[in-house]
Amino acid sequence: MKAEDIIWGGNNKGVIRLKNDIGLEPGTLVNIEYDYIKEVYYLNRDVERVDISAAENVIEMLNNIYLTGTAPTTMVWVVDKEENLNYIIEIKVFREEITFGKLNAIEIKIGDEVIDKMRIRDKENPIAYLDNAFKYGDRVFVRGYGRKGASFTILSADKALNVRQVGNEYIATKLVRYDKSRADMEAVFILKGDLSFVDSSRSAFVSGEVAQKMEVITSGGEYFDIWDAYNDLDRIFAFRQATENGVLKYSTCTSVLTDAFEYCFTIEGDDIEAFPEGTQIDCTDNDDILKIDTFTKVDQLGDLRSTSVGVFDRIENGKCYIIDREYDSKKNLPSQGYLFVSVVGDAVRLSRREKAKADIITKQSPINNLAMIIDKGVGTDLQSRHEAPITGMLSRKFEGREFNEDQRKAIEVAINTPDIALILGPPGTGKTTVIKAIIARFEEYYKKHNDKNVPKILVTSFQHEAVENVIVDMEGNGLPPERKGGRRDGTDKKSISIRAWRDKIGDYIGGEIAELVPEQDMAHQTLRDQIYAWKSKGMDAAEGLELLRTVAEANRLKLSNKLNESINEILGRAMVRSTGQSMELQAVEDEEREEIKKVLLAQRTTPESYADDGKKQAYALKQLILQEIIDNGGDTAAIDEVLRTKGQDPKVLKTYEQFVDGLKKKYVTVKKVDTAISSVDSVEQCLKEVDSELERVRLERLENRNEATAYILQNFLECIQDEKEIERIIEKYANVTAATCQQSMEVGRFAMNTTYDLVIVDEAARANPLDLLIPVSMGKQVILVGDHKQLPHMLDPDVVKQFETDEKMQELGVLQESLFERLFNMFSRSEGRVKRTARLSKQYRMHPVIGEFASDNFYSEYKLDSSEVKVEDKTAHLNGLYNDRPIAWINLDKNNYGMEIGRRSKKREKEAARIIKEVKKVLAIAPKKSIGIISFYKSQSDYLKDIAKTELTDAQNDRVEIGTVDAFQGKEFDVVFLSCVRANVIDLEDRRHRIGHIDDLSRLCVSFTRARQLMVAVGDRETVECIPALADFIGRCREGGSYYE
Asked: What is the mean pLDDT of residues 853-874?
């Protein structure tokens, strides 16, 4: 509270003159007292005292205040200073000042009912708001203090806080608007002393729990205890997010299917607040959800029997849109109900972590001493296996590939480890190839020592995209991996993987068949292809008859008399009908009859079923009548009546049911036509019989083993044309399972979890340690592959935020070290007989100039070797663009290209426009180049995408990928542009605000190691060259003649 906010005590102003100068300044709080002996007024400031004089009217004002027979409580401010020691003062007069010390300190508890009345920005720190609004130093201003009932009101310039004493506690009960016009009429007291506001809301309770967990984490305790506390924090914040974001009530729910299911909910009410972007949303029709702000346990949300909908997308025109990319079918959601932030998914996620940790600690995991390995880096020192890394079988499987020495060592360490092995795989060093080689070599070893049985193998990573990247072209036991979990999106990598495997197997089997029966009659296969094509296109009646006529003419002598007669009858009937009406018209009639049948069967004729979608179905029926598709003389009276009564009148519903039944007798229960006449069904049946008889003829001709084998292979080839059939084969016979770390494990009463003979985790350094424990706890042998020099492991942002200003946290580095890095460092230092670590150092991705820069700046401890890179293959060949150099810096100084804009996420529009211009130059010369555009900020990447849509052609956009650096690990492109964005005049001393997280070495490492041929960085040199890696890059570009202003 400021002095000017004290609006009580009257408006008593006047000018006084000091006898002596005591250095008094405006804004000072002083005391005025009367000296009865000298009969003068004097001013006190701390220990200084000085007599004052004033004009007669001011003295009269002072007399009225100080000489009325009572001892008033006043507060005197120096408002302004004039010449000759004259000062303007203002005197506030109060009823009484009550002073109390520490022993009598007053704590006023602030609950949710008060905090809910605050503005959104004040809710972020309610105690700070109350201190600023209601306290002036150690004083507060109250009315009604001391009255019976022990309640009073604390005042501010625009708010009033009601307080009631309950036992020995003071509790704030209500925060209301204060009427300033009453200020001069109020009898106001001053409370002076140790008074404080205390947060007793649910959030405060959560904050107390958070503080306890933070203490555990920063205490430097045991590894599992620290991550236990982290998991508890994760749970606290997940639950808090669900309860704090409230509930949206909806009245209708619809859905459409595009590349995913989009659910649209009509929201009731005007004051609609969006859910946080990207949050998982559940729905329920249980009214108990309206009490969510009183929930204190996750179980209370579970009792609601909610349904997961999908991810929140947007709110638009009173409608809430939620996208579901996980499920292939539409969900059955309540037609009316409530939406809220899901905590069920978080509960499952956290319970998986807890189960994995419990299995490890209680020695229930396949690796018995796993807890000791993780906590202390201590494993068995007995090396019982001595398998060679490369065998003839492996060489044949990877024909044409020579494994370098580092790769051979990595395979050897992985195959022979008794428990865990770690492979450090920097960018472009072939770690994905090594993973596939490890699987193939492990299968060979396992079959040899386990009576030719195949091992169960789990391949996993921290998120879906990483899993999908690593399993491309991967096989186990000759089949693609079984994808567990996964996501539904426009680029269905599961289907792509299946098709690639089918095509490869198809080519191989086709070649085998050609060798077995070189002169094989392909007529039968052609027929099957034709039937399949006809059915795929929608089974057009005219096309079906033409196909049947052609087949019959070509195979009359091979078919039975009975089948020939059926074909003749169908074709003859079709010819007769063609004189009356065309086949096209008949097809239209058949289609209309199917539509009528579908609508009639969907009618709801009970109150319960009508409440679901009866209105929608009734309207559909009415439309068919009005369009004269249903011929009943246009009678819709029964429909209109049921719509008017909303399906709630039993008599009306009964009449409606009779009406619908009458139509069903006419259109649904029609006598079926004999299959011998030319309906689509009979054509299809006839074609099937032709196929079957030709198949029997073919079987009778199989005279030798080769033809029989070719026949079996041909049948298999036909079988795998159906992707669903391939999925069934994979599910039954594949020995490799692919899943994210989280989805590797099932939880719940009926969970069935597999123990794997081998677990391989790719991008292990990116996995949250608690998530990484899940697959690790399920394997007899575990291989972790990763690179802790690239992006850090995934942590919950709410948990990380708690530690941003915690000095002890920064000092300890707790939570910042990934489990991969921890184990790699511990085992690298170990001098035992068992070798558990390997490092890949030869890179094949980048031009040697880019590789050398990356090695010097990001891998100084583990140098990258570019000696085997074929320079010609890694040269961009852009006709002199960027001086034909593989690296370039384009300097866009802030004077010409402007400053960065944005508060949290930054963007720089002219920089983005220049990058798109450079992209167009590259694609004009080399249209086939793949281009990645990386930014450190989402705002910039979004802006770049917007420009690219308008400035680039569709073909060019297909060659370009734009995103933040976090989305680019594991990817590679011919050309990469890096948008630095930062351009400002912030002092170098304030490094964090000057350059933000582009100073993160791991993000820089990823950014500069995606390009195969050309790496171009764009930005304001003056702002960013304080970053050593960028300064070095700029320097190398200057030396090479590829620095551009």
From this structure: 93
Phi, psi of 196 (to 5 degrees): -140, 155
DSSP-assigned beta bridge partners for residue 88: 15, 80
Cα separation, 622 vs 628, whole angstroms:
10
Tell me the β-bridge partners of 307.
283
Contacts 24+ apart (CB under 8 A), 879-884: 879/925, 881/921, 881/922, 881/925, 882/1014, 882/1016, 882/1042, 882/1044, 883/1040, 883/1041, 883/1042
Q: Give residue 299's pLDDT.
A: 64
- On the 0-12 / 13-18 / 19+ scale of CB atoms within 10 A, 781 is buried
DSSP annotation of 288 reads: G
What 3 state SS string does 59-112 have? HHHHHHHHCCCCCCEEEEEEEEECCCCEEEEEEEEECEEEEECHHHCEEEEECH
- Which tokens in the block code for residue 1022? 């003056």
User: Residue with structure tokens 């320097």?
Assistant: 1035
CA 1028 and chain centroid, separation: 32
Structure tokens at 449: 């020592």
Q: How many CB atoms lie within 10 A of CB 591?
A: 10
Q: What is the pLDDT of residue 950?
A: 93
CA nearest to 203, candidates 110, 281, 108: 110
Predicted local distance difference test score (pLDDT) of residue 274: 80
What b/e string do you get for 754-767 counting C-beta neighbours within 10 Å, with b at 16 or more? eebbbbbbbbbbbb
What are the backbone angles phi and psi of residue 1017, rounded to the nearest 5°? -105, 140
Q: Over the chain, what is the mean pLDDT?
A: 84
Contact 1013, 875 (CB under 8 A): yes
Q: How far does Cα 807 stand from its chain's mean position?
A: 30
DSSP for 954-999?
A: HHHHHTEEEEEGGG-TT--EEEEEEE--------TT-HHHHHGGGG
Q: In what order do the strands lie in the sheet with 973-979?
A: 960-964, 931-935, 973-979, 1011-1019, 887-891, 1043-1044
Q: What 3-state DSSP class applies to 583?
A: helix
Tokens 């099932």 belong to 746
| Per-residue pLDDT tens over the stretch 186-228 | 788 888 888 888 877 655 544 555 555 555 545 545 778 778 7
For the record, the structure tokens of 159 come out as 């708010």
Burial class (CB in 10 A: 0-12, 13-18, 19+), 359: buried
Chain segment 365-409, per-residue pLDDT in tens: 999 889 899 988 888 877 788 999 999 999 998 988 899 999 999
Distance between CA atoms of 610 and 654, rounded to whole angstroms? 12
φ/ψ of residue 787, rounded to 5: -155, 105
Half-sphere exposure of 700 (CA within 13 A, CB side): 7
User: What one-character DSSP code corresponds to residue 763?
Assistant: T
Q: What is the pLDDT of residue 297?
A: 63
CB 108 within 8 Å of CB 196: yes
CB 143 within 8 A of CB 188: yes
Other Cβ atoms less than 10 A from the Cβ of 556: the count is: 10
Answer whether residue 294 shows pLDDT above 50: yes
pLDDT grade, residue 677 (50/70/90)?
very low
User: In terms of pLDDT, which residue wins out, 577 or 987?
Assistant: 987
What sign results for the dihedral spanned by CA atoms 305, 310, 312, 317? negative
Identify which of 7-11, 667-671, 761-765 has the greatest average pLDDT.
761-765
Q: Are 817 and 826 in contact (CB under 8 A)?
A: no
| Structure tokens given for 471 | 């399993």
Buried residues in 519-551 as b, exposed as e (16+ CB within 10 A): eeeeebeebbeebeebeeeeebbbbbbbbbeeb
What pLDDT shows up at residue 719?
81
DSSP letter (8 states) at residue 875: -
Rg, C-alpha atoms of the chain: 40
Distance between CA 496 and CA 502 in Å, rounded? 10
Q: Are strands 931-935 and 482-483 parallel, antiparallel or unpaired?
A: unpaired
Rounded CA gap, 78 and 83, in Å? 14
pLDDT tens by residue, 547-560: 888 888 888 777 88
